[in-house]
């Protein structure tokens, strides 16, 4: 069996993932069909549209920070068991 990939789950992790998926789908609609779903629902330059864009952006930043923390933790776990170079060098050339 392989080791399960464990991500620290905070109270903001799942909502952030959902908001990021919603934002990605909206950008996909903009790119493919030139249709902005958020603007269609809340108005083109309304305060609520800007708030939705801001919250989705903040969710993306949160996920980036969580991902970087996960990578740092994994790197620390990977190097924890390794022997570190002590700086001492041994020469076996003098032994007969």
From TrEMBL:
Residues 77-96 are annotated as: Disordered. Pfam families: DUF378 (PF04070). The chain crosses the membrane at residues 12-35, 47-65. The keyword Acetylation does not apply. The keyword Membrane applies. Keywords: Membrane, Transmembrane, Transmembrane helix. It comes from the Archaea. PANTHER family: MEMBRANE PROTEIN, MEMBRANE PROTEIN-RELATED. This is DUF378 domain-containing protein. It comes from Methanosarcina baikalica. The lineage of its organism: Archaea, Methanobacteriati, Methanobacteriota, Stenosarchaea group, Methanomicrobia.
